[in-house]
Amino acid sequence: MPQKPNIVFIFPDQQRGDSVGFSGNSKVKTPNLDKLANEGVTFTRTSSNGPICMPARMSLMCGLPVTQHGLWANNLSGDPTLANHVRNISEAGYRTAQIGKVHFYVRSAGDGHSRDFTYRMNDWGWEDSIELRDITAYTNADCFYTDYLKEQGYLETLRNYIRTYVRGEAAGLLRPWETPPSLLPNDKDIDIYTAEKSVEYIENYNDDRPFYLQVLFPGPHNPFDSPADDRALYNPDEMPDAILDPTTGPVSPQVQRMKDVSHLGNMTASQARQMRLYYYAKVTHVDRGIGMVIGALKAKGLMDNTWIIYTSDHGEMLGDHRCSHKGLFYESALNIPLCVRPPRGMTHWKSRALTDHLDLTETMLEIADGSALQEGKEYRSSLLSKIINGPEGKSAQQGKQHVFSDIRLYSMVRNDRFKLVADSLTRDPTELYDMSADPNQLNNLVDNSEARGIATELIEPLNAHLDKLDHAKVKKYQDALGENPNLGSAADRMGVPTINTEERHE
């Protein structure tokens, strides 16, 4: 029997869908991803099922919407007893590995080295693990990366930088467009470290089993501490402008809270372009690491028997609508890049099909011939036949009828043209957009009498989605916010880092 194909899942943190060259962005420099896309299919309308780190990652892991797995934000740890795709792929005969940022459970300051938690990674189904933490945790946290920096003599360089960044941002003294470049050598930062460890894994692999390797880059998540050399590749005057146009219609409570904690009300257009430059430069830096991983696969002759899947957990607002971070259902935070390259590659084509993380869960299980996940299967549809049949296949441009996303007790449903957001508990609509006529989401139609029929049409599938909401897990989430004032604060809930919360920030 021929060996099953390897699977390499490349997953940077917080990369918005339009920040790659293959999306049509002529300003960002992602040569390695563009080469990968040239040998695969790219999906232009892929949504995060929960545009915050932990909600998104749990949905991808377990194939469940947030309403069912219960991680509404970053303040609760995931349940490793839930069925998940990594464990099923392992049981299908694969050696499973993760290298990088997993972010499934809450860590506290000074709680030990990451190797002390390897058993948790094993519980999730990974046989091999080099778990890294969010970069802002390294003011005092220890893991494999801090061991490496200590050996290289750069640990205090990093820690002093992060202390300055976190305190400066928390105090409102350091704006995103003022983030200084990394003080580490270009080949010593956490993203290149992630790439190097992945390269070592591929080069030294000698198991008879196929491998499923997750390469989980911590970047381009803020801080946008891109190296000076990568920043020098860009001109701020050539950066795309942020969406700063005035809006019409009501501002939802969810959006208003993010505006309040982002503090970008006085940001100028040029400052927004500078922030984008720092972010794009970090994207380019991560792209370099991705090129290293692909180069290792080529050097070992594995490209003819390896699926490569590239996506992200969520996007980044980058000043759009005067918001930073994510945690909203605007496309800047919701839309994510997706490229799938099959073994031996294929002629590049694009699909506009509506897809999401849950479809990827199903796709990877089908590639591995793993056992299906039973819970939530009505939400998932494998992309494998669509990819194999190519652009002439009858389903090439046909995706889901509805895509759902949920965070912080707000829920979204979208179809081919319209997007509706509602309170997850009261089900009262808060936002409605015509994505064809208003792709920048400047006109909230939720109170527009002429749009009531559209809202009514979307309320029905949203109600069916929310009918399956796990209320016990909602209460657990609410209790966690109420019992810990830090977790309940607007700053923490909206994603602004603080020096004491470590990886609870988003």
From TrEMBL:
Tagged with keyword Metal-binding: yes
GO molecular function: metal ion binding; sulfuric ester hydrolase activity
Domain Sulfatase N-terminal: residue ranges: 5-369
Residue ranges of coiled coil: none
A GO CC annotation given for this chain: cytoplasm
Positions of region (Disordered): 482-506
Claim: Hydrolase is one of the keywords in the record: yes
Organism domain of life: Bacteria
Database matches in PANTHER family: IDURONATE 2-SULFATASE
InterPro entries: Alkaline_phosphatase_core_sf, Sulfatase_N
Name recorded for this polypeptide: DUF4976 domain-containing protein
Keywords in alphabetical order: Hydrolase, Metal-binding
